[in-house]
Specification:
heterodimer; A: 210 residues; elongated; B: 196 residues; two-stranded antiparallel ribbon; 6 helices
Chain lengths: 210, 196
Amino acid sequence: MATTSTAAGDFAPSKSTPISERDLDLAIVRRVQAGQVGAYDQLVQKYREKIFAVIYNMTGNREDASDLAQDTFIKAFQAIGRFKGKSSFFTWIYRIAINTTMTFLKKQRRRRFVNYENINEEVASSEILERLTAKNRTEKGALVQELQEKLNESLQKLSLKHRTVVILHEIEGLEHAEIAEITKTSVGTVRSRLHYAKQQLQSFLRDYLN
Amino acid sequence: MPETDQLNQKDVSVEDLLKLKRAEQPSEAFWSDFDSQLHRRMLNTLVKKDPWYVQLMRGLTGRVAQSVTLVGAAAAFAFVAIIQPTYMTQGNSAGEGPVLSAVGANVGAEADVVNFVESDASGAIDLAASATELDELQRDYLVEEVSVVRLAASDHYQHDFGMASLQVEEFDTAAYSAEDIRARSLPKAGMANLMF
């Protein structure tokens, strides 16, 4: 895969993030750094759903996720002058989101209330739900609600580091190398954490699995 | 039912269940609120205010600093005006120490020392030390002497006190005023400024 040098210097290519996407983000960052503060809004609009989703799945609480996602964008905005472009903006802001959320969760002395997001009905009408409905012979709406609660409970039972890799890989679709860069660990560590986390989830969710 | 049988045959994995989490998405109204809240918070970060206790400390520190400066200046003046001249006298056995005040250079007179006026309950008393007595004191106590001498028109007398240099020029009432001498001879305000 070809690399491209930009004003930010050389950077490693990313498999799942095309270079053009990365260059686009970097160009916006440079504009913000040059003083066009309004350009930052483009980055917010582009990444807010992803950032919110990661944080929501880590916290299990919609309101907390909203606050923490805003914190993430504010921190990124305040630190954007120091962004050199060695990693992609995408990786950088994910890292801020993960660290902000972990700091928040570690401070929680007791478990906070869960506050689940609404299920998008269009997305929920998937083959997987059809299979589950057929298997359990239950009404779809009831199954969806039950499954949502069970999934979130199971995720909250995992440790923070295991929860993070599962969310980033299985829900967000990131690759092992990207997760390793975000979490500042090795690919091997990501793989082993993922393997362990899936084993745990299998035991928690065995009633819904074949 | 063949379709149901087909669905039943396929296994549901952990990965399949986790993918269902992607269906948990906020509404457009949520994002509208999110954007406006974020903008408001970002504007607040630009107008940064110190916490209340920092503002309180700043206010108190300002007032305290002013008080300390005044007290310090008064203490320094008292030190220079009382303690140093005390060494120059032969001792003062009278009750409380007198308050000494510098009345300024007697620039018009032929006297070659600065007159110090001592005031106590009975009234003002002039103390003009003679040159001989001053010489003796200088030998004993290394007291520095400030003298104003009628000089020739172009002569200047510089005496370095270590903080600022003093230029004492010939005093010609027509050309100079006392304020001018003070302004020109004291490049920076310091303790010496209090003496004149």
